[in-house]
Structure of Purple acid phosphatase:
Amino acid sequence: MPLHSDVFQAPSGYNAPQQDEPGSNTVVYWSENSQVKKKATGNVYTYKFYTYTSGFIHHCTIRNLEYDTKYYYLVGDRNSMRKFWFTTPPQVGPDVPYTFGIMGDLGQTYASNITLTHYEKNPEEGRAVLFVGDLSYADNHPNHDNVRWDTWARFVERSAAYQPWIWTAGNHEIDFAPEIGETKPFKPYTHRYHVPYRASQSTAPFWYSIKRASAYIIVLSSYSAYGKYTPQNQWLEQELPKVNRSETPWLIVLMHSPWYNSYNYHYMEGETMRVMYEPWFVEHKVDIVLSGHVHAYERSERISNIAYNIMNGICRPVKDPSAPVYITIGDGGNIEGLANNMTEPQPEYSAYREASFGHAIFDIKNRTHARYSWHRNHDGYAVEADSMWFFNRFWHPVDESSQ
Ligand SMILES: [Fe+2]
């Protein structure tokens, strides 16, 4: 969408974003059922990227919030002060229902705007977004024009200011541009999008975990080292055994580059990570793996391909009740167009595939059942273009396939 689009307009008022001055680093907040206003103090900084200098970027963590409570919060100064709200998640527990939205490769095109609107209008009402990477596509603009990181943030504010988006780093977050002297990977992304990685003993913001309601979410980085002995590999090996399915029955993994992808785009890019980690996912009975990158939609059967060693030649995906369902949902809107060229015939492991823009909902009912649905942008808000009931791999590991 052009820079003058309404969804990109900065709010009015003195020193409103993009700010010329640091402004206030205080957030005032209060719960719906209380008149007591509290304050939290954040950090503020700027960063440079080639000839671009960012506005003053504020990050503020509010601690010791009550579960399942609506909070209002105020940011900014005087007449440019702005009020938002969010609701904290319910306490973690095995049968706590919770609804996640799923989006990937969103970008800031007209299609992106329709995707976000469809997510907001979906009657299933997602309470947090699992975002599988590729946010702004600023790097597709001349010199990675970081103004496009600003506009993207303003575009998604209408959702992201009110509910958490759980971030995964995609290739468009790398912003590695040695030709203009920008050699620190993920510089704009890490300055703008903070994740609570230290809470899960991670040493970098690209891989981490979050517990929410009855779900345990593991975020991985397709673009950080993941081979044997690397920090991400060590972390994941220690992380998976920590998942207590009696507390959080649903084990969800996010990554950007898909392992099972039958489109002729980014074909087999996820293969080396699959070889490293797929045996662990099967051993630990991951329920669902979400990725993006391919600008289309695809859902796999429950399959694994872990029998191969360099001698035996057993290298076909097979049905596996302990394996996750793999979903590619890089169909947010991007800037490069849809991936509409598929390998033919459709491989047996691929249950459903379609090159349309959209988003999905993962609606956890209890420890055994979750309703999954994919929603196309060109359908009505409530239409499920693809759907399935997920049976939890730990508590109810029966075959869900229809045949
Ligand atoms: Fe990507």
Residues 105, 134, 170-172, 256, 293 surround fe (ii) ion (CB under 6 Å). The CA atoms of residues 256 and 291 lie 5 Å apart. The helical segments are 110-121, 147-160, 187-192, 231-239, 271-283.
